[in-house]
Records
---
Amino acid sequence: MIRDVSSGIYHLLHPKMTFFLTSVDRKGTPNVMTCAWATPVSDEPPMILVCVSKESHTAALIRQTKEFVVNIPSKKLLPALWICGRHSGREVDKFTKARLKTSPGRNVSVPVVGDCIGYIECSLWKSVHAGECYVFFGRVRSAYADDRFFKNDAWTANAAIPLHLGGSKIVYFR
């Protein structure tokens, strides 16, 4: 039987890859949040979008500095994903709380999360108001991945990337 699910419409589009979204303030202080709403939007030029709550610290930082990084973790960073998804960077240094290491970005001032298996560094091209979120369109400045887990333009089965099912449900597949 087909039934109405309009109250949970975004669940129809899940699972989605769960990732760390990093940003910095004007002083260079880094922030990290857990996110799952991202998609490619253009191959030429390469662009992606991420959707972030207008009330989040991350949204304010991306609007300030016009840069962000999508950091793709494997399942070993699942505990850190939970920590970064449950605390605000306005109140807590989530890098310290989640015991995340950082490295400088290759082409942006935003750091990358160490131990991730893929990275997409972006500069902000455009921001759009969309309900409770901002849609940030990012021009890809660089994209790189661990070749043990990304081969022939695809993730391998052993990448074990966490997938967001909606709400507080995250799974991963081997």
---
Amino acid sequence: MKKGVLETIKNRHSYRGEYRSDKISREDLTAIMEAGLAAPSGCNKQTTSLICVDDPDILKQIHSVINPPVATTAPALICVLTQRINAYRDKCFAVQDYSAAIENMLLAIVDLGYQSCWYEGHITDDDRICDKIADILNVPEEYGLVCILPVGMAKEEPVSPKKKEFAERAWFNSYKGEK
């Protein structure tokens, strides 16, 4: 990996603050989604699809169903869809597929100077906000909407969370942590 990629990885973190109103170019949004679709997928089943919303009226509709509200000031939102398709030995790798796609997009977002946050549990919980968003976007039933990624310029200076030391979580040749 190039040093630039490593820096982007180290600088990426969840941003839950306010976003500036600056519109994001379709070129940047396309590049972000292309990064997501370039992620590996189990047996190349390519179970992940994406919908980018940058229309203010549609964003307003989506935000009206998200309770408690999140990322209401982001000028764009990438919705991550998945299909449960069996691959090797009747195993489905949809979760791994969309997770890899999301991480690629989060890295591309930071690399392009924007911020984001992986909202999955908040929308897939028992109240099924994801289904309400899927209805707004006319998503067919064979797809599940599993995540939303707001995209925008941070209004406030992003603050990285404290990470545990390397030696607390990574070792060579055998486990060396607390037992």
---
Amino acid sequence: MNIDIFLQNLKKHGIENEIPNISEVNAIFLRDLIKIKKAKNMLEIGTANWYSTIHFALELKNIWGKITTIEFSKLSYDTALENFKIAWVSPIINAINGNALDVIPSLGEKYDFVFIDGMKRRTKDFLELVRNKVEEGWIIIIDDVIKFREKMIWFWEYLEDNKIKYNTIPIDIDDGIVMIVK
């Protein structure tokens, strides 16, 4: 199986079915960041049809890393499990179906790379919860911060109130990420 064609078809399916996936440009940027960071234990919140998860897993597989990913939708979760098998990345993925706000506190591991792409109005809550789940030298990436800025008011206030240093990086034509590094 050609993984590039599989990913292209997965992306195309997402576009045709209005499934919100990260862009290919964003996927490549984040894969490069994972590689540079040499991430070993990644957490992903919100994964749609798992296009991003497979991208991340392919990179993590090369550096003996693993990923835990949380998805609220049961349909998306079930589809993801099949896609992971097809892409040959199942062994390094811990896929969890549930509400990330309930799941994150129960996670017993520490993460060195976190990607937050869940419900935008809950971004602040996700960030609050994961700050206790990261280890020294971590990176947290929050997606869609330009396009959905209005839905993320509490997130921006949280950054300001807690004096959290961050960078906004406009990766896509109409969107970008926030990167917090410690």
